[in-house]
Amino acid sequence: MSQSLSHSRSPGPDSPSPPGTPDTSCDHIAHLKSLILLCAPRKSGRELAELRAKLSASVDDEGRVVQHLKHRLIDVENEASNPNKRSRRSRNHRTEGIEEQTVELTATELETRARQTGRKFVILCGLWLCLADDDYDAFFKADPDDEYDAELRFNSDDDIRQGQLREVLDILPDDLMPFRKRTWLAQAFKDGMNSQRSHTRTRLRKDVHHIVPEGIPAARVATQQSRIQHFRSLIGWDEEKNRYSIWNVPFLHGNESATLDFDEVFRHPVLLKIFACIIRGSASADGVMRGTSRLPRANVMQRIHHIEYTMPGAIVDSAIWAIWLFSGDEDFLPTGDFTAINYRDRHDEYLDKILEGLRRQQKWARDLFVFWDSHLFPSTNGSHYGGGVQQDHEEDRGEIEDATDAMLNMPTVSDAEDEDEVD
DNA sequence: TTTGACCTGGGAACCAATGT
DNA sequence: ACATTGGTTCCCAGGTCAAA
């Protein structure tokens, strides 16, 4: 049918009748389905219009099922009236959700779900997968390693992959699990990731006036030269060392500290506004710091993906987006095209510290999530990662300072491209 | 009931890099 | 030289809900 992708890369699940046969088996639905089947691409526009009219006239009360069938009919119409254009994928089936299991999942819909999961991964977990040879297929064909140790997650690429694989499996919908190792799933997931990055990149730059800190004219972000001129030091440019610092970044700190401060890092309004933009649209960014950012009526990412609390990857993603947004980089690539910042490695570095802080139950890490949740999800009861609000004891503060010192004084190696951050 | 605002995913066109 | 693949950007149709 309409979804016949000319690309060989999307064969769809092998089975012609995927699991989840429709249980809405009334004659009404069967009739509609027969109408759909009549819509061969050779039908004339008029015939299609008649069929569509019949469809519209006979449906009022079958909700999602009908909507779904209409979508497919529209697909067929489009295909029939424009035989020369590229084959198109089905429209997104927006009403899907975890609780909805009554609609038959066709190959196209499974593919759509996989693509959506790829989008979700970019929003909540990470911007890129750590792949060997850019091979998504191999990534998805791998099995979770029983020996994997979360504490060593960032020791090697293999460990990073294992960590990411677990994140993927965490958010992969149940009905996709049987197809986890299929090539089409890897391809669709990749499509989703790429698409989400591209859209976010374009939309953040377009809507940047919602994001720039108060008092800064949005025009300063408009051109590459202007961004370099006005924001280079704010995103960590070190004039003396002639490099971009990884941690001494004012735009990461709530108080714009130019040196690393774990009690302030990842708290800059820009980060929270960016996350608000991504999950509920640019207009919602305005009230974030006043706690008045509300969920808009539209079907935003927060609704689609049931996002109810802040996740570590979301904070890190926002940090990366923030640095890129005010940088001289034009495209959003793993390594900046102007700054040469390695965003992918930096993402891992930031995530490492947050996860480590959580694992050690350090106060700064927990408070960080309380901070984010209180601004972005004020109505949510307590913080998932923050473990609820904690009292501010002197000993806690002393302990965290000790831990921070200890972390900073750990030995470093200097054979990497990036010099050591801390001397 | 219609309109409008706000937001999304994806088609289409395009460009660049890579394969053959 | 041509084909394929990967990625970006522009634009549009569609969902939702409040206001008219």
From TrEMBL:
Q: Under what name is this protein listed?
A: Uncharacterized protein
Annotated region (Disordered) at: 1-27, 76-100, 383-423
What superkingdom heads the lineage? Eukaryota
